[in-house]
Design a protein that fits this description.
Length: about 280
């Protein structure tokens, strides 16, 4: 039996919803039926579980504890390609504080109560009992993964798991760290240039074309998402007509192809920087 599949079945038996992660440590892209969220947009749901199709779709929402699903043909094929096992912390009643570097770890040791700790490639995962909203970049090098998010399984870790403290919940209520700016229409200077959007249809058509370009990508997903974000911003970003709703549509299209929210945030920020915006 594949090592990742064996690990996944063990986690599922303990009540932890699992999913395979492909190269880049991201979920597999949606099946054709679900591409572009045409099946209803599972990521907008507030409970985990696979959508009604044979594919491993909608990232965290595909995570499951059902052995019959985990060993089904599409999943077994994915486990053969998987580079690691992912899980949905919120579905297991957990919150992961993802500390990306030594500075973040040093901060956590003074600001947060000790709990179960799992080493990562560059830092640590601190795992608490309890769930909350997920949010990236709550401070430099710190992400929170719980509801509607996934994390890599990197082993059982060490130390006793403690209850989710108010100090972690409070982080999600703060403004994102400027080190990883959250994407929103306000990041694009309103009125900075002449408006080319003679009718609302001009902008809507541009967003739809960008969604289609991302949905049709078969390789180099990261590069495609970045180039698409760059194209949208260069055409629509300087006059202030681009709204949070438009940006959310682009992010949804990217995440339907397996991009993580953090990858989307970074690609958007990089595109803004490249254009001097």
């Amino acid at each position: 039996m594949n090592e990742h599949l064996r690990t996944a079945l063990g986690l599922a038996a303990s009540g932890v919803p699992v999913l395979p992660l492909r190269r880049g440590k991201v979920p597999f892209g949606n099946c054709r039926t679900c591409a572009g969220n045409t099946c209803g947009g599972r990521p907008n749901m507030k409970t985990a579980g696979p959508c009604r199709c044979p594919g491993i779709c909608h990232a965290w929402a595909a995570a499951t504890t059902a052995p019959a699903v985990i060993v089904s043909s599409p999943w077994v094929a994915a486990w053969r390609q998987a580079v690691c096992v992912g899980y949905h912390p919120g579905g297991a009643g957990l919150t992961v504080v993802d500390l990306d570097d030594a500075d973040a770890i040093a901060w956590a040791r003074t600001a947060l109560p000790a709990t179960r700790t799992v080493p990562t490639t560059r830092g640590q995962h601190w795992i608490y009992r309890g769930t909350m909203v997920s949010r990236n970049a709550v401070r430099p090098g710190v992400d929170i993964k719980s509801s509607m998010a996934y994390a890599r399984y990197l082993g059982p870790g060490t130390g006793a798991m403690t209850a989710l403290p108010d100090a972690v919940r409070a982080l999600a209520a703060k403004e994102p760290s400027p080190a990883r700016p959250a994407p929103h229409a306000g990041a694009v200077p309103a009125g900075a240039g002449e408006c080319r959007h003679r009718t609302p249809a001009y902008l809507d058509r541009g967003i739809a074309m960008a969604e289609q370009r991302i949905a049709e990508a078969r390789s180099a997903i990261h590069a495609t998402v970045y180039r698409t974000f760059l194209a949208v911003l260069s055409t629509h970003g300087r006059c202030g007509c681009l709204t949070d709703t438009h940006v959310a549509r682009l992010f949804a299209a990217a995440q339907a192809k397996g991009e993580s929210p953090r990858h989307c945030t970074d690609a958007w920020a990089n595109a803004l920087t490249a254009l001097g915006m």
